[in-house]
């Protein structure tokens, strides 16, 4: 039986972490803004906004730690050799090209000019595409308001609001509960709870 190879384990773990962090990072870029995600109970592959954030962070840290290990322990000599040309030992053209490319992207991102601005505007368009009159909360932080707060804002009596929720097949215990809490317990969105309360009301 061959001995366990730390180098192979590091490379394979880095690969899986890279794939996971890349995919979750893209999801975080195109997902709805927080208030819309919470209002709609938005999910992708069974994970909501907080779930994708929890998935991204540990794998990003794994890439940082194992990437550093992979470079220093297994590829340092090879990496350093890239700084100089093999023929005349002068600074390599590839290093100049890499520094130029890095500087271009860095300045582009800081000053919000192309090509970074194209990416940022694409992300903004993806997030804005979730916004509409149908998906927008009726007032700021609506999902964290309690039945009592919503009754005060809409003029719908607490008991009638709670009765409507129960008639919709949902469980609600007391008017101090937030509609986000009620929605989570009943596996629906806060928007659905709010629509149940306000349906048929003037």
UniProtKB/TrEMBL annotation:
**One family name in Pfam for this protein:** DUF4405
- Its recorded name reads DUF4405 domain-containing protein
Which species is listed as the source? Desulfobotulus pelophilus
Q: Does the keyword Transmembrane helix apply?
A: yes
TM ranges: 12-35, 55-74, 95-120
Q: What keywords are assigned to this protein?
A: Membrane, Transmembrane, Transmembrane helix
Indicate the segments forming the Flavinylation-associated cytochrome domain, all copies.
9-76
């Amino acid at each position: 039986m061959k001995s366990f190879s730390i180098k192979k384990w590091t490379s394979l773990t880095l690969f899986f972490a890279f794939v996971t962090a890349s995919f979750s990072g893209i999801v975080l870029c195109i997902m709805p803004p927080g208030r819309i995600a919470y209002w709609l109970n938005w999910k992708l592959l069974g994970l909501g906004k907080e779930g994708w954030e929890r998935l991204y962070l540990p794998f990003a840290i794994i890439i940082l730690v194992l990437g550093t290990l992979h470079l220093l322990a297994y590829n340092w000599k090879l990496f350093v050799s890239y700084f100089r040309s093999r023929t005349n030992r002068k600074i390599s053209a590839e290093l100049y090209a890499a520094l130029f490319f890095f500087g271009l992207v860095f300045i582009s991102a800081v000053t919000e000019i192309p090509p970074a601005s194209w990416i940022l505007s694409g992300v903004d368009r993806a997030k804005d595409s979730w916004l509409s009159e149908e998906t927008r909360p009726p007032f700021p932080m609506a999902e964290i308001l309690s039945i009592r707060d919503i009754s005060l804002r809409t003029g719908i009596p607490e008991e009638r609001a709670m009765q409507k929720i129960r008639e919709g097949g949902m469980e609600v215990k007391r008017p101090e509960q937030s509609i986000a809490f009620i929605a989570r317990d009943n596996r629906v969105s806060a928007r659905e709870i709010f629509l149940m309360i306000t349906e048929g009301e003037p």
